[in-house]
Design brief:
Elements: E1 2-7, H1 12-24, E2 32-38, H2 46-50, E3 56-57, H3 63-73, E4 77-82, H4 92-103, E5 113-118, H5 124-136
Parallel strand pairs: 1-2, 1-4, 2-3, 4-5
Length: 138
């Protein structure tokens, strides 16, 4: 059995990851248990929630919250799903990634593997910026 904790599951990229993993689980002999990790348990799509084995809530920037979710889910994989809706200068993504990286150095979590999936920069606002920039310099 593979247990996967999806950090950022309350946003589009995280929910997409959950759906794709669930679809792929039918093509393998190894069961995949899905565990969304998000700040607000109500922010996950109800159809996505039905496909999960447990919803874990907490602050992704706090090691203790991640530790609790990892222990409860017994995850061997973490997907850090970054969304592209807010591309403003913020340290939230950095804080979350650092908290996870520090936690994974602890002996109890050395076996956990991480996949980072980013949707940052693929939004319409980035495309519009490039079009404005190109138009100014041509």
């Amino acid at each position: 059995m593979i247990s996967v904790l999806v950090n950022g599951a309350g946003y589009e990229t995280g929910q997409w990851c959950l759906l794709k993993l669930e679809e792929g689980s039918h093509e393998t002999d190894t069961p995949i248990r899905l565990h969304p990790f998000l700040q607000d348990g109500r922010s996950i799509d109800p159809q996505v929630r039905l496909r999960c084995h447990g919803v874990h809530t907490g602050n992704a920037g706090q090691r203790n919250d991640i530790r609790t979710a990892l222990a409860a889910s017994q995850a061997s994989w973490v997907i850090l799903a970054l969304t592209g809706h807010d591309t403003s200068r913020t340290d939230v993504r950095t804080t979350n990634a650092k908290a996870l990286a520090l936690l994974l150095q602890e002996p109890d979590f050395l076996h956990v593997k991480v996949i980072i999936i980013s949707h940052i920069g693929a939004s319409a606002s980035k495309t519009s910026w490039w079009e404005r920039h190109r138009l100014r310099h041509t």
